């Protein structure tokens, strides 16, 4: 297992649409292990493959609290099959958009279908932080970022800030 460098805004890879996992090989298991390690190291509650530069539909999540036992979730090819009518605002952040947080309104509950690393297809319903996290990470698989759910004004401001920071670093 290894901690991998994170892909940061405005890196164009964040806009890529990730490919299905296909056969669950040793490489897929290694990628999932690397993602978990990178996520815990950051630390973050969720990570999508593309955030370490792998355009594959894998998501890792752990919404357990700091003092609790770790509850790692690995989702292969996850898709949202149902969302509740009720919505809820939640302050979101993203490891690819460091130190920026904003409130996003999303469905309060979702049902997700995915494959586990054992190749089993599972459906699971979630609410609260886990529901938000699932929607945020599955967005990543489709090249969507949480700032896309904000007003154009706010999004443009963030994009500009990160573009400037990237330019400074390159200089
Ligand atoms: Zn994110």
Automatic annotation (TrEMBL):
Cofactor note: Binds 1 Fe(2+) ion.
Known function: Removes the formyl group from the N-terminal Met of newly synthesized proteins. Requires at least a dipeptide for an efficient rate of reaction. N-terminal L-methionine is a prerequisite for activity but the enzyme has broad specificity at other positions.
Key words, A-Z: Hydrolase, Iron, Metal-binding, Protein biosynthesis
GO BP terms: translation
Annotated Pfam families: Pep_deformylase
Major enzyme class: hydrolase
Organism of this sequence: Methylobacterium platani
Keyword Metal-binding: yes
Alphabetical list of SUPFAM superfamilies matching this protein: Peptide deformylase (SSF56420)
Catalytic activity line of the entry: N-terminal N-formyl-L-methionyl-[peptide] + H2O = N-terminal L-methionyl-[peptide] + formate
Family the UniProt entry places it in: Belongs to the polypeptide deformylase family.
Active-site residues, as the UniProt record annotates them: 137
Keyword Isomerase: no
Molecular function GO labels: metal ion binding; peptide deformylase activity
Binding site for Fe cation: 94, 136, 140
Source taxon at top rank: Bacteria
EC number, as in UniProt: 3.5.1.88
Record gene name: def
Name of this chain's protein: Peptide deformylase
InterPro entries: Peptide_deformylase (IPR023635), Peptide_deformylase_sf (IPR036821)
Cofactor: Fe(2+)
């Amino acid at each position: 297992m290894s901690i991998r460098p994170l892909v940061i805004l405005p890196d164009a890879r964040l806009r890529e649409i990730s490919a299905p996992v296909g056969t669950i090989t040793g490489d897929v298991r290694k990628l999932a292990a690397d993602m978990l390690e990178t996520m815990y190291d950051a630390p973050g509650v969720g990570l999508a493959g593309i955030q370490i530069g792998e355009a594959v539909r894998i998501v890792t999540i752990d919404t357990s609290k700091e003092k609790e036992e770790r509850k790692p979730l690995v989702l292969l090819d996850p898709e949202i099959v149902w969302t509740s009518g009720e919505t809820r605002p939640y302050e979101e952040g993203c490891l690819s958009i460091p130190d920026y947080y904003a409130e996003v309104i999303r469905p309060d509950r979702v049902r997700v279908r995915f494959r586990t690393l054992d190749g089993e297809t599972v459906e699971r319903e979630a609410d609260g932080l886990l529901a938000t996290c699932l929607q945020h990470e599955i967005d990543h698989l489709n090249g969507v970022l949480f700032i896309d759910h904000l007003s154009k004004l706010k999004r443009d401001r963030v994009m500009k800030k990160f573009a400037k920071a990237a330019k400074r670093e390159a200089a």
